[in-house]
Amino acid sequence: MTGHAATDGPERPLRLHGPEASEALGAALARVARVGDVIALSGPLGAGKTSIARGLLAALGLAGEAPSPSFAIVQPYAPPETELPVLHVDLYRIDDVAEVDELGLDDARDDSVLIVEWPERLGAEYWRDALWLTLAVADDGARALTAQVPAAWEDRWPPT
C-alpha cells in the first residue's frame, strides 16, 4: 500500500475539531467515492469513525441518522436511499476471520462502496487497497487523522 499522511502542514495529521468536522470529511469523501472503494476507519472507541461514515451516507442522500452497525455488523444502503450502494461494516465484534467470509464482503465490493470500522480486526493485508484512515484523540479533544493512501486514491485524497 502506498502510504502517506493526510496533512494540513508538514508531517502533521489532519485535525478534526468536533463531530461536525468528521461528518464534513465524510461528506467530502462521498463526492469522490466510487463503487469498489473500501474506506477503512480505524481508531479507539469514540474517535469519530461513525461520524465520518454518517457524513458520507448523508452526503449520498440518506435521510436521517445512520445507525452504528455494531450489532448488525453490516448495514446495507442502496438507491434510491443513497446515490451509490454502500455497505457500512463494523468488525468490532468479529473474533475470527472465518466469520467475515460469511458476510460476503469480497463479492460486495463489485457493486458497493464499503465503509469498514475496526478494519484492523482482519489485519491491514486484508484491506491492502483501502483508503485507510486512522483517528486518534488529541489532548485537546480534537481528532488527529492520518491516511494510508493506495494508488487508486492518490488523485482523490485529500478530498476537497
Automatic annotation (TrEMBL):
Record's keyword terms, sorted: ATP-binding, Cytoplasm, Magnesium, Metal-binding, Nucleotide-binding, tRNA processing
SUPFAM superfamilies associated with the record: P-loop containing nucleoside triphosphate hydrolases
Coiled-coil regions listed: none
Superkingdom, natural source: Bacteria
Pfam families tied to this protein: TsaE
Compartment(s) of residence: Cytoplasm
Annotated family: Belongs to the TsaE family.
Name recorded for this polypeptide: tRNA threonylcarbamoyladenosine biosynthesis protein TsaE
Organism the protein comes from: Sphingomonas donggukensis
